[in-house]
């Protein structure tokens, strides 16, 4: 484990659309998983210069979700503008743990912790996080 992991203040704005809600205009619990995925993808691209497609073509690997824990604290509603954050918490050989939040203004609506595993594209077996990415995360 590295103790000097570079922290980012990344946040992705997400508007709640009708498709994200139930009949009452409240965000459906599964929609948050999509919001979190979008934020992780853009965090990796904007903060570290890697798209998912780039990871696949350059390193022959991809990150897959091993586990996720979501705490639903308050509901988001139709047409809300949310901010979805992503921040590196821990880095192992092939595992990456991220902390994420969904906020509406100052209100924390959802807190999440996601474990990702770096796997090969050909057989989906765990491999080490690419050194180029590991170095960025350590500095």
TrEMBL record:
InterPro entries: 4-hydroxybenzoyl-CoA_TE, HB-CoA_thioesterase_AS, HotDog_dom_sf, Tol-Pal_acyl-CoA_thioesterase, YbgC/YbaW. The keyword Hydrolase applies. It comes from the Bacteria. Keywords: Hydrolase. The keyword Hydrolase applies. Gene3D superfamilies: Hotdog Thioesterase. It holds the Pfam family 4HBT_2. Transmembrane segments: none annotated. Belongs to the 4-hydroxybenzoyl-CoA thioesterase family. This is Esterase/thioesterase. The gene is ybgC.
């Amino acid at each position: 484990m590295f103790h000097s992991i570079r922290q980012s203040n990344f946040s992705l704005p997400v508007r709640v659309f009708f498709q994200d809600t139930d009949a009452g205009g409240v965000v459906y619990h599964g929609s948050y998983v999509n919001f979190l995925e979008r934020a992780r993808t853009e965090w990796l691209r904007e903060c570290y210069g890697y798209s998912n497609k780039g990871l696949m073509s350059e390193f022959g690997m991809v990150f897959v979700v091993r586990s996720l824990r979501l705490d639903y604290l308050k509901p988001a509603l139709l047409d809300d503008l949310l901010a979805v954050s992503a921040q590196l918490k821990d880095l192992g050989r092939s595992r990456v743990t991220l902390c994420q939040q969904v906020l509406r203004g100052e209100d924390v609506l959802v807190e999440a912790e996601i474990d990702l595993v770096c796997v090969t594209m050909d057989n989906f077996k765990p491999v080490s996080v690419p050194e180029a990415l590991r170095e960025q995360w350590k500095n």
